[in-house]
Amino acid sequence: MIDYSLYLVTDRTHFSKEEFLSIIVAACQHGITLIQLREKDITTIEYVNWARDVKQITDNYGVPLIINDRVDVCMAVDASGVHIGPEDLPVKEARKIIGEDKILGVSANDVPAAISAYKDQADYIGVGSIFKKNQPVERQMAALKQLKSIVTDIPIPVVAIGGLTETNLYLLRDSGVAGVAMISEIMQSSNVTEKTKQLRRSIQLMKGGIYH
């Protein structure tokens, strides 16, 4: 069983490779349950090299590594799985390539798209952006309602992403999500160790419906 509770999506911007990898180590040591290597503006060989370095760490800590978009990179480094969006390889084709044993995540922002991905053998659905910057409250509430509808209508795990922070996690307390995905909240933290520990505690409370 995969634990989607605290899902780190990477962003190497502004970091040296050494700094980046040290963040991955700290996150794996202190509570991250899944990592998605999501890097843009990078050549294929660079992506493969970064993925190999990250996988060495995630394997050491028993944390599944997901590759964003690139099925070829996933297969090249034997990552745990791949996450694709609506403009990437079709879900059915991705499943054929990676086989039955790897994790297949799919981004979907409405119920029909989520159901389609489920039928095409996605293992989990990523839903976002839940809280866009400067988004009106009404839009936030609409995004939460859509998230809950997707959770209700599909029998596979749903992960929320987009603008999620330690301070707004409580808004997901009755959503039924399997976990939350975060980028800057962790990557940009001044203390990744303490931030990861606190997020794990907060998510446990949120999922238990007792977040205050």
Structure description:
Pathway: Cofactor biosynthesis; thiamine diphosphate biosynthesis; thiamine phosphate from 4-amino-2-methyl-5-diphosphomethylpyrimidine and 4-methyl-5-(2-phosphoethyl)-thiazole: step 1/1. With 212 residues, the protein is α/β, with parallel strands linked by helices. The chain has one domain (6-207): Aldolase class I (TIM Barrel, Alpha-Beta Barrel). Helices cover 43% and strands 16% of the residues. The protein has helices at residues 17-29, 44-61, 71-77, 91-98, 111-119, 137-153, 184-187, 192-207; strands at residues 6-9, 34-37, 65-68, 81-84, 103-107, 124-127, 158-161, 179-182. Strands 1-2-3-4-5-6-7-8 form an 8-stranded parallel beta barrel, surrounded by 6 helices. Helix 1 (17-29) packs parallel to helix 2. The longest helix has 18 residues, at 44-61. The radius of gyration is 16 Å and the shape is globular. The model has no long low-confidence stretch (mean pLDDT 94).
